[in-house]
Design a protein that fits this description.
The protein has 2 helices and no strands. By secondary structure, the protein is an all-alpha fold. The longest helix has 20 residues.
Length: 50
């Protein structure tokens, strides 16, 4: 019994460790940042008023 149990336990332990070690990485956030509002000087120079 012990001859079969120890290698089986070692294989199960190796599979558990390998399963935990290969967690998927999170996907990067590809959304563009929000546009900055025009400051007062830019609004005056360009004539764009929001």
């Amino acid at each position: 019994m012990s001859r079969l149990f120890r290698p089986l336990l070692a294989v199960c332990l190796a599979l558990v460790i390998a399963g935990c070690a290969t967690a998927p990485q999170p996907q990067p956030d590809l959304t563009p940042p929000p546009k900055k509002p025009f400051d007062a000087k830019t609004q005056l120079e360009s004539g764009r008023v929001r």
